[in-house]
UniProtKB/TrEMBL annotation:
Keywords: Membrane, Transmembrane, Transmembrane helix. The chain crosses the membrane at residues 20-41, 61-81, 88-106, 118-140, 147-167, 179-197, 228-249, 261-278, 290-307, 313-332, 344-365, 377-397. InterPro entries: MFS_4 (IPR010645), MFS_trans_sf (IPR036259), Sugar_transporter_CS (IPR005829). GO terms for cellular component: plasma membrane. It is found in: Membrane. It comes from Marinobacter litoralis. This is Major Facilitator Superfamily protein. It comes from the Bacteria. Pfam families: MFS_4 (PF06779).
Length: 407
């Protein structure tokens, strides 16, 4: 008890300005690599197809290479999880993001584009794991862990930013030139954010949060396995509406209906405040209880699209899934870190890798279902089943305080 008291009383003080700067830096880094690197391709692809740079099949293949790179990046982050490694790799992989985006402005070669998008996905995967993990460690040392979820506001904001960067100059750019806005915004925002994060005072620790010497323990145990399985269900469940919701709107609604374009915009709008909301709920009711509530709401959103085909189901799906999927990420990451304080970055990397894998499985399963004669609407049932699976295993995750108090 004495060692814990010493740690608690010796926690460094932090000013509101410092907190804001760190969270802003993390949010900008995620905005750059995850939205200007990854999600911007969603609104870009129709323009690139219309410009005859690629066709729809080639566009899907390029997207798959990017997803695969994201998975590889998360796996690399499992290996490179120490604080000193994170400090070295953040600027390196931000540079990879910038260089690969620059190459995209210069090439129409399909193979080059695929390789470059794979590399960009690797950079995204590494940084998406390491930046929030570093910030969480910094916040824990200052007794501010409950604020960690705010860094994901950068993802929601980035959805709107990326949409504007594509639609705004759409009439003036063509083909590979359409990547220039993402590049020009990435350089100042990404570099400033990374430089701020590298300054964070996070020692390479020899003791955990209770003051005990850190010992090597398995990554998978009775506490973490249900959390991994729950997170796998979340990844498979959310990716279906996040990939196919606009297409489902095109199939179900008249050609001039505003929701054909409005569903994705609605997702982006509700995503922006969702990290704050789930961060707050996690602090008030506990991260694990908030996670279970999150699953129930997200499940209801995907189920709504199946039960109420048409505008009502589409709006409910957009709002409930868009308002929860980032919360699933931040609550799961924080719960994992609370269960295994000494393995925060490594556990985070493993979860993101699993999440990335299930995101690749979702579209593949949907393709198999459609090829077998199923409809896109009925394919959303895969998402319902996956989220139900995740919800069930969320109830098998032990509360961190109970887990650590076991004899």
């Amino acid at each position: 008890m004495l060692s814990r008291a010493v740690i608690m009383t010796s926690s460094p003080t932090v000013s509101p300005k410092q907190l804001f700067t760190v969270l802003l830096a993390g949010g900008l880094v995620l905005l750059v690599v995850h939205t200007l690197g990854r999600f911007i391709y969603t609104p870009l692809m129709p323009y690139l197809v219309a410009d005859d740079q690629i066709n729809a099949s080639q566009g899907a293949a390029i997207a798959t290479w990017n997803y695969l790179g994201y998975l590889v990046g998360a796996l690399l982050a499992i290996r490179w999880h120490r604080i000193d490694q994170i400090r070295f790799l953040l600027p390196l992989f931000m540079l990879v993001h910038v260089i690969t985006t620059l190459i995209m402005t210069q090439t129409d070669h399909l193979t080059v584009m695929s390789v470059v998008r794979w590399l960009n996905g690797v950079a995204n995967g590494v940084i998406f794991v390491q930046a929030p993990a570093l910030i969480l460690e910094w916040l824990v040392l200052r007794n501010r862990a409950s604020l960690s979820g705010l860094v994901y506001i950068g993802v929601g904001t980035g959805l709107l930013v990326s949409s504007g960067l594509v639609a705004g100059p759409a009439d003036f750019l063509e083909g590979a030139q359409r990547w220039w806005p993402a590049l020009l915004v990435s350089i100042p925002l990404g570099w400033w954010g990374v430089m701020q994060l590298r300054k964070l005072d996070v020692p390479v620790r020899d003791h955990d949060d209770s003051g005990k010497a850190i010992t090597t323990t398995p990554l998978l145990d009775r506490a973490s396995v249900p959390l991994f399985l729950s997170y796998a269900g979340a990844g498979l469940g959310y990716i279906l509406p996040m990939t196919f919701l606009p297409l489902l709107a095109n199939l179900e609604l008249p050609a001039d209906h505003f929701l054909q374009d409005g569903t994705w915009m609605l997702v982006a709008i509700v995503t922006i405040p969702s990290p704050w909301l789930w961060n707050k709920l996690g602090a008030v009711m506990g991260d694990l209880r908030a996670l279970r509530l999150n699953f129930i709401i997200q499940l209801a959103g995907v189920l709504a699209a199946v039960v109420w085909p048409g505008a009502v189901g589409l709006v409910l799906c957009a709002m409930l899934v868009g308002g929860t999927f980032v919360g699933t990420v931040l609550l799961t990451q924080r719960t994992g870190r609370a269960l295994h304080p000494h393995q925060g970055p490594r556990l985070s990397a493993a979860m993101v890798a699993l999440y990335g894998f299930t995101q690749m499985v979702g579209p593949w399963l949907t393709k198999q279902w459609l090829d077998a004669g199923g409809t896109l609407l009925s394919a959303f049932g895969i998402g319902v089943a996956a989220l139900a699976f995740g919800l069930v295993f969320a109830f098998f995750v032990p509360r961190p305080e109970v887990w650590h108090s076991r004899s």
